Amino acid sequence: MDMAYLIETVVKIVVIMLIFSALAGLGTYFERKVLAFMQRRLGPMSVGPYGLLQVAADGIKLFTKEDIIPQNVVAPIFKFAPVITAATAFMAAAAIPFWPQFTVFGYTVHPIVADTEIGLLYVLAVMAIGLYGLLLGGMASANKFSLISAARTAAIFISYEVVTGLSLLAPIMIVGSLSLIDFNNYQAGGVSHWLVWTQPVAFILFWIAAFAETGRTPFHLIANDHEIIDGFGTEYSGMRWGLFFIGEYANMFFISFVIALVFLGGFGDGGLGGALALIAKVSFFFFFFLWTRAAWPDVRPDQLMWLCWKVLMPLAVVNVVVTGLVMMF
Amino acid sequence: MFEAIAFYLFSILTAVMFYITVTTKQALFALTALAAGMIFISAFFFILGADFLGVVQIIVYTGAVMALYAFGMMFFDTTRELKERSGSSLITAGLSILSAVFVVLIFVAPIVSTKIQVTAPLIAGATNSQSVGMVLFTKYLVPFELAAVMLLVAMIAGIVLAGKKMDRSLTLMAEEEIMIAEEANRKVLL
Q1: Quick check: ipTM above 0.90?
Q2: What is the count of structural domains for chain A?
């Protein structure tokens, strides 16, 4: 553990934090624009060219708003809950290889903060803690709608963790490692080596579960949109409310990275083309999150549970068993 | 140096979290401190190089404590303080000190007598998760399978206990059918 290693790690952490905080802000702009075009509107247009500075205007608004702590809330937990969501989203990014290694001025940079052998499990575990922020925010708010939202968060968490884990088990069995870099190297041979061709069921299941993990639209009922209220965020104001959204959008980017790395070949053999392809894949998955939001209504909570326990989980189990049999014989 | 800093940081954090868990009267504080303490314990596995067990600790206990939250939500108003019925504090303190001493004795005894041996030595060249798997499916296969059977028994028992009238769904029944079913229920109650 020398000084150079320490400085390099700190620089990497700061760069990832800055890039993805900015992207989370820009993500809200993309979302509003994409939704607007799909609904034949213009979206934000007034602030800056094509409304590009809307992000800055929103940021200033959120930072300077009064931070209201309502009566009867459990204040310490109410204040801390948004930090959990935002912090765990970025902590999960520690084990994601964002880019193939490259050389700057004769110094080789590995764009991954902690290359552990259990990278994939670590990312999913820490990302899952992020749901605690929503749960605690909802439970500490002393508001009935927030409490309903918290109950739904707990239900989604307990059900969809099962699908995420089981659907990834089959690819893990094939690759024989939990490191995202090993996953990438296994598929480095080109498009025909991608795991999506051998594991299509796992790919679809994990993609569906990703929507539940990030709380995006078909499964957006943790925010009680249909009750015309903001669920766990009802009592929040200012930057605390904003932190929930930084966490949500950062999670959307990171889970897109995980899908691209595990199933779609990641950055391939590590050349510039592979790196650009990874960005294209991640952009597609991020766009798909917005596309579904424009095209699909929310499901009911009982439909969500039905889908999880009666459709996705049996499919995932069958997929694991079939993969095991094929690998054995 | 980093290991020492991390160890002391996380020992203090874990101890403080569990202290809050047992002393607070607020259900929400207790549950949150419990979850935080369980997650901080994973740091010790990471420091010792047992990455796989560390992540498993995070996954298992976030899920398990989340289920506890759900129960807390059903049984009390978690934003209010609870009134606790506690007996003599002298007995509580005495019993906890006694049990703490016993636990330490049990774990320290083999170290002191230098009879401690590694029953499952590290396999050369295997990664952390691979060696856990090898030990689990060879030396400890029977306890592992027994635990699985016990969980299955608990699951089936849970379904049997909770699964009365699971063959009919109120959302799928017509209004009249629900009325008839309610009438039948009332007659049983009378």
Answers
A1: no
A2: 1
* Residues of chain A positioned with their CB less than 8 A from the CB of B56: 121
Q: Is B59 in contact with A177 (Cβ distance < 8 A)?
A: no
Along the 329 residues of chain A, how does pLDDT read in single tens digits?
Answer: 578 888 888 998 999 999 998 888 888 899 999 999 999 998 888 888 888 888 889 889 988 998 888 888 888 899 999 999 999 999 998 888 888 887 777 777 788 888 888 889 999 899 888 888 888 888 888 888 888 888 888 888 888 888 998 999 999 999 988 888 888 888 888 788 888 899 999 999 999 999 988 888 788 877 767 777 888 888 898 889 989 888 889 999 999 999 999 999 888 877 788 888 899 999 999 999 999 988 888 888 888 888 999 999 999 999 999 999 999 88
Which ranges of chain A would DSSP assign to H, the alpha helix?
Answer: 3-38, 54-64, 75-92, 119-129, 131-140, 144-175, 180-186, 195-198, 200-214, 238-263, 272-295, 301-306, 313-328
Q: Calculate the CA dihedral of residues B100, B103, B108, B109 and round it to 10 degrees.
A: 120
CB pair distance less than 8 Å for A118 and B55? yes
**Residue A280 CB-half CA count within 13 A:** 10
Which chain B residues are Cβ-neighbours of A116 within 8 angstroms?
Answer: 51
Tokens of A122: 């670590």
**Domain span at residue A274?**
3-328
Q: Give the burial string for A189-219 (b: 16+ CB within 10 Å, else e).
A: eeeeebbbeebebbbbbbebbbbbbbbbbbb
- Going by C-alpha positions, the residue among A203, A201, A222, A204 that lies closest to residue A212 is A222
**Which residues on A lie below 8 Å from B58 (Cβ)?**
125-126, 129
Place of tokens 């596995």: B45
